[in-house]
## 1
Amino acid sequence: MKKVIIIASLVLSIVTANANVEKTYKSKVEKATVYLQGAQLFHGADVSLPAGSSDVVIEGVSPSLDQQSLQASGKGNFTIIDVHFNVKYPEEVIETPKKTATKYLKLMKAYEDSLGEMDFLIMANADKKTQFDIVKNLLLSNRLIKGEFKRDSLSILKDAMDYLRIRLANINAELLKVRREANKLSKENIRITERYNELQELANKVDENPEPKAQEPIYQVVVSVVTDIAVQGKININYFVANASWNPEYELKANNINSQIQFVQKANVQQTTGIDWSDVKMTLSSGNPSLNNNKPELTSFYLNFYQPYRNISTNETLKAMPKMASSGYDAVMEDAKDYSAVTYSNNLSNAGNASNFTIAVENRTRVDYTIDLKYSIPTDGKSHQVAINKKDINAIFEYYAAPKLDNDAFLIAKITDWENLNILPGNARIYFDGSFVGKTFINVNNADDTLALSLGRDNNIDVTRTKLKQKTKNLVASNDKIITETFTIVVRNNKQSTTNIDVEDMLPLSNNENIEIKIIEVDGAKYNETTGSAVWNVNVKPHESKKITYSYEVRFPRDKALSGM
């Protein structure tokens, strides 16, 4: 009898030791790395863990998290052995009786959606099992394994059997996981189905019976841990969500052409992740985890003679169509690396203090802005402005005009060390001399050593371009004719100070050997023979006008019509 008691006690202690203790913690977003499309969200929970195995349930996560990106880490003397996403459907709360089936029907609709999702999960699980069964059957039916090749040596057969043993062990282990998952899905499907049937029965009884109050699903991340002794620690989780983004926006402020430009960087952040971000430390990144990160592969192409059109059959058309290359999804996880299942030290480190300024870190593929202030971004899909940085930068102010396209002069600010600003292409609002001038677009993709920013029009400078009477001359000794074109550009300065302005126009070019163009006069312009650009740097005193004259002639066959004049 004593032996029976001892054995029973041992069995009870083993069962108790192996039983998982589940503890639930509420958590909010502590940090977010927001990409141009998508975001990496970070949660944390201070935990108290008993000795043995425990399931730490963290609630308050986004329902739209990417489960493949889910990772966990921690601080404390424990080991993380698993992390997964879970949806909990709480029991309904009984409300005051009402003679209506409306709430039952709403609940039934929610459970119908859950049953539909459950069907997809069961089908996916069945597909996994089918795949492993096929691989297992192929291995077992291999002729080498069956010994059907008489010439096979004993060593070859031994190697084949060793390979079969290893592969079958791996496949059987995966099949065991699939069967456990199928069993869990089946139980959950039965539970949801039974509850749906109960609601249907209640909906059919429109009487004085109490009605259940619909409860929202609870989205959880379950972190399985194990420890030898009871410990205190912290568990951190992070995951990627696609429905968040940010776009840059700028403000350019200058008092006059002799002052510095106040360059203000801002960001418009929006998210619909299903959870509010309250007092969140943010990093804005120019990376995009949604993009395919595989390098492009060039393929050979061949030149051939042009073939006249002919009607071909559908089969020939399909054969001639190029095959499309497939692309995969490679998420950027640099902000969430090194979160594997490892044992963490008991030496807990303190968080560092935020810097007084936004820190812009330029990586090989992106720029990250670490914001020193905490922001709250609700899950409403609206744009919420976040301040990134503000700097006073030196600029060279110049005026520019292209009277062929526009008679106004534009004030241009040229910035030389613009690469140090770590800016992205985006819209900018311009303020000059205390007034809002307008909007422009900063395109750093086409900038060289100097970034030219347009600060708007200056109505105190008038630039007019006039075409004088065209001269035409037919040559007697040949079948050609010559047309001479002359233009004048007048710059009028109505300002109280001397103004320096670059005036640009385009002279024609020829890519036809029968069309000859000869430049007669450019009036001191800097002329580019390759592009046809002519630039005059004009210095105009207050209330003074200066005139530019240029001309060219075009020689071509008289029986041809010339276009572009």
## 2
Amino acid sequence: MAQEAPASQTEAGTTGQIPPHPSAFAPGTLLLTVALSVLGALIGLHLVTTLGVSANTSVIGALVAMVIGRIGLAGFQRFRDVNRQNLAQTAISSATFGAANSLIIPMAVGYAYGDMSLVWPLFFGGLIGLAVDSWVLYRSFGSKFLSAKAAWPPGIAAAETIKAGDSGGKRALVLVGGGVVGAVSSWLGVSGSAAGVALIGNVVALFMFGLGLMVNQYLTVVPGFEDYSLTGAYVPHGLMVGAGLVALGQAVWILLDRRKSRKPAPEVVPDPAQEDTVTPAALRRSLGQGVVLFAIGAVVTSLAAGLYADLSVPALIGWIVFAVVAAFAHELVVGLAAMHSGWFPAFAVTLIFMVIGLALGFPEVPMVVLVGYCAATGPAFADMGYDLKAGWILRGRWSRHPGYRAYEIAGRKQQYFSALVGFLVGTIVVVLVWRSYFDNGQLPPVATVYADTIRTGLSDPDTIRTIVLWAIPGAILQLLGGPRRQMGLLLATGLLISSPYACWLVFVCLAGRLIYRRIRGPKADEEVALVGAGIIVGDSLASIGRIVR
């Protein structure tokens, strides 16, 4: 079910003046976002090189801004403004995912492969992918395809944290209670975020996600499957290939749908917050620009890596075309999964295109560059979606005001500027510290997997056949679920995640959510989402605290 702006935020009257949205470049705000971005980049690099994952640090940024806002010194009280707190959480999360996922992983692929000459070309390729990702999402968020009304669960968690800290009272207590549950589950080694997401995202999509988690955890206890590995057999990857292809088709269908939406009856007063701010024509332009920019990035990366020495001209052109398709598809598939579930299967989707590239017969070095370029896209795209969702919720209090639309667009623009600050700081941090991590053997595990797989190649001819066969049910599920439910993508995502007992958390929370909705009525979704947001916050903070300790 699409997440709508809470009722409490859409009851503001149309009288009064909307205050100007805070600027991302105001001296105090910029100073705080730079400092938080340094922290976020270091946290992201540490997590991805030790555990192979990146944490959503946006809540940390929001909490730091809240604390600073309550310091009784001149100027600091400005950070009691929820919109400034939103800018802070946007910057720190952008620095985290930009540094960890979009830059250090591509560089590590070249390093793990053993070719130091590829590290810097992959860095620049990742930088281009990061820039294109953020631009496309910024221009596309609020469209029918990438709707502001969709779940984007971590974004809701960040917004609810900020709102609870601002208003206090019952909402704060509910959020804190959820946070305690999330923290305890994290310390017990259980993914509280899975439970939190189940209380926020689409019910059908998350049921498929839980089903995938269950199969992944319990398949080996079934007689005859004790030594069977789903990932080793490329079953989830086949499902992802089929679902991903259909998801792309669904995206194209939406983009080509030129029918004008029906206007509401004259007596109905629409809520501007529930209307798309990006028209289908603007969405087509934005995604078209993304394809062109990805093509430019692929050309620059291929030339920097010297691929002209490994490939003939026709082969190089084919590589560039494939790289553009892979990067663009990776971005959309990861973004759609993140929008509905809060999880983005970046590793799995990159692995899919790596397998396809190997099947097409690309040499090893071009494959290393392809994988690094593809891996850089997607995570920053999804993360910015979370941040803009948080801002959309916080700005929703003015949704009944005549100037709301301009205010929402202005706030979104300032968030984009804060994200750019985070990306810039994260880039500088990576340039300064990457060598110390790599020389100490601290490589992201996924980079080693990519490099080893490329060196090994597809030694088993049955692998391609398996992927093709499992692509069929993946495509069917995705087609049946439609673009809102993403059934095929979410099932494949669950099959690729090993999180003990997370499936039961998802199922129990989904059942409780449905029961509570029947008892409570329309208000249930907002109340349950607040609990889910608290659980995600507690799980994230506990996980990061454990790493720091």
## 3
Amino acid sequence: MAKKSSKQPKPTERAIDLRAFTTDFFTNLGATVKAADRRKAGALQVELPQELTTYFGAPSLTLCFQQAASSALPANGQQLIAHGSPIFDKMLTYLDNRSAVAHQRLPIRHNAGEELMRAVRPVNTGIVGLRMQEQTQHLYAFHWHITYRADDKREELYSVLLNEAGERIVANDEQMGDSNGVDLAVLLADAEPLPPELNSEGQLAPVVIGARLPPMTQLSRLAETARKYAIYHADLRCVSHETEILPRLYKSLNRLTTYYQQQIEEVYDAHDPTGEKRRVLETDLERKIAEEVENHRLRVHVQLFSYAVLQVPVAVAELTLSDGKREVTVQVLRNRYDGSLQRPRCYVCQTETTQVVLDRNGHIICDGCLQQCSRCQDILCTTCGVAACPVCGQQNCDTCGRMCWACGERACAEHSSGCPVCGDEVCHACQEACSHCDTRQCRSHLRMDHVKEQRGETAYICASCALRCPGCEQYSAEVGLCSASGQRFCQNCLIACTTCQRTVGPGFYQIIDEAPYCHNCLVECPGCHGWTTAVQSCAYCQNSCCHACGERCILCQRSFCADHSHSYAGCDHVVCQTHAAHCIHCRQDLCPLCNEVCAICERYHCAEHAATCAQCGQQYCQTCVTDLQLCTTCTTLANTDVMIELPNEVCLADTRVAKLASYYTWTSARNIRYAVYRGQHAQRTDALIVTTRDTAAPQVLSVTGPGITRGRHHAIDEHAPGEVAKLKDSSEWLHEFQEWLRRMRRSGRDRR
């Protein structure tokens, strides 16, 4: 449950407040008030004047503020003053009928001479005129009666103080918490009645209050403004009041719910078979809950019960300030009641200022809102102010500067000029000079020079200097004359002929072998009608052709036309008809550079009609390989008896051949590409060596012979490096071979 925000006043404190109110009430109305006893909150004896005697029905009243302890009624002859008592309600009714409006004035407590003169200090002006006068300003105090009704009733008096402009003057009280505000109670206590008015004969004129009040429309407007502040204050108070009401509502609802829940639980099923009694109790509980919620609902009533119009004496000093060119009148006001000064307000920030500055347009400004033009040195406020030139950055006013139509900035007169194309006044930051004729104009009218842009440079050219190149369709000022056509092209499109060095444009030159040539230095090919530097004759038919439509044989290096040259799809080689090759079996076209002739018959063959010799392992055409899978060279080698000396051959430089040379008798057979050597021995397997017939550096292709390793023969072949690695070095092999010979001789003697 939430705690109360403030302590409730004790009965004695409430009695003292009512006693002070009652004393002030009767004293202000002309009655005599005396204490009936010495107690602090004791009874009062009041002697009433004639008007109050008629209203209250008695010439004197004995008023008490506390009931007797032994009785619920006051003592004999005493009337109780308490909230809701008959005598207190009668006092409030009397106030409602008489105190609706009060018109008073505040006393004069301060002088108005020297303080007004020291209130302002002109900076750039002098005082050329002074006029002093007395005026009266009005303050309006609206008193509101705010009632808060829920399960209890609370009342509050709230006052709002406004000036003539409808601005609120904060009151110095506990609610606002502002120590610098106005103490409204002191202000109302210091107020004095208005002095009597005299007629033309010097006699007192009857007071007509309505004639001294402001117009009713102004009072209505001020009252509506004050009502908004009162409603806002009531909304804030409702928060704390509702915080106190909710615990009480919860307590009441909890009590009701507990009671009815017990009643519902005590109804037995046998006594209420249809459940009607339970439904009646539940309906009654809902009605009671709705009543309690409605009784605890907070209702607020705000009512204006009185207002006061206070005249404030004000001294006004009208100062005429002049800087030699213009004059401005300012007012300085002093409240002669509290001594406060009202100085002139800055035209820009609306704050009161002591140091007054007069700008060129007659505005009163403070030091913080002062600006100065760097050209004419005039002082201006920030509203009228100066602007930075987008070119030089110096401040300039609207007189010294010119507004740029392109960027909207204000530039100096030196940095602004008219565009010769559109005629607009544009700053130099938005303009650019033509790189060719140096004419300054708007950047939107200029074009980028295409030639310099391609070189990485930035250059603008105007429409007069820009020429649209007919070759690349771009604008440039760097153009040249084509010597062939007389047209003007940009420098990017013009080239120099490789032969004659003349400058020509697009359409009047050709690129041949990545070099440009003009048409005067070229000839037209009769075959393809294209431009070429030279024509050549076909070696076969003698017709003219160029390098584009003719070909050069890679073997004989002679030129041939397209009809008498032959190219192959698998390679880029071109040969003439004389050197064109064909398979001897199927007549398939073969490139003479990519295919070799048969080493025996010296004729070309394709891969499908090739055969491999089973003995020498070389490839030949099918015609040169017999049915026994031996080539013609190997067949010749088997039938020849002509011995040769292998140490005299070049192939002996190979270590594999050197190991076998001394153990065999050798015969050989040769073709145009290979040489085949056969080694024979009576007690050993034949050896075979195949080499190329390259006279410069012959190559051993294969070596086949016996190797004595664990009684087995091993082939030595350069294409089987694993087998070669199994052989031992030459000294060990020779030792094993000698042991084998001795065993063979011993076995022969044993057989004999």
